[in-house]
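**User:** Hello, beginner here. Are you able to go through the protein record under this note? It all follows right here:
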Amino acid sequence: MGTDDLSGLRRLYETMKRLRAPGGCPWDREQTLQTLKPCLLEETYELLEAMEGDNLALHIEELGDVLLQVVFQCAIREEEGHFTLDDVAATLVDKLVRRHPHVFGDAQVSTSGQVLRNWEAIKQTEKDKPPDRSAIDGVPATLPALLKAQRVQSKASRMGFDWQDSSGAIGKIDEELGELKQAIASGTSEQVADEMGDLLFSIVNTCRFLKVDAESALEGTTRKFSRRFREVERRVREQGRSLKDCTLAELDTIWDEVKRGEPTG
């Protein structure tokens, strides 16, 4: 059977093994799981950026780059005699079937919340999980702090540890803001940092409760700020000045003009 007769995924895997084989690519042959870590991280962020736009060709390309990282690691592990790409796929299929008894079994659910609670309950009973495993143990320690907070809160919620409605989460923001103000007025720098962390955690929790992705919301606001700031810089340069030459009141006036000039909705 020639390469043209293979599926795209199998062709990809065979291509990677050829690159890693003697006489293949020197760079590919030198890579290890450790050297691939920054590559995976960079490709993941590039994919996230592609997902924000409508360029389908770019989306396909960036998905392929992330898939390459998966295939690369599988090829290395196969060389070591541990597992193959098929093993990874089979393990994933088994997990999906096991954790979706409402689709592949007799369980009954009516909401996505019930699905997530069942998912966590099934995870706790799987044979490779220690009996004292916490519901939040699966959150990677290396996640960015904002995303990590969101994932920890989400997992705790699936176990029933959550507010009854959004008013409780919003009220917690008010409470933490008050404690932060007290710390700023009379506390130490460590207390201020601690209370600021509590406030941020509460804001993330409220985002989750309102079904707003905190990471995406902050990213969107940061992009908006950057766009407006660059326009302020441009207008100031047109006046033959720099930002340092302007008063804060002047910059605020230009900022408001930029905001008013943007489309609404």
User: Anything to note?
Assistant: The chain has four domains: 3-97, 104-133, 134-212, 216-261. The radius of gyration is 25 Å.
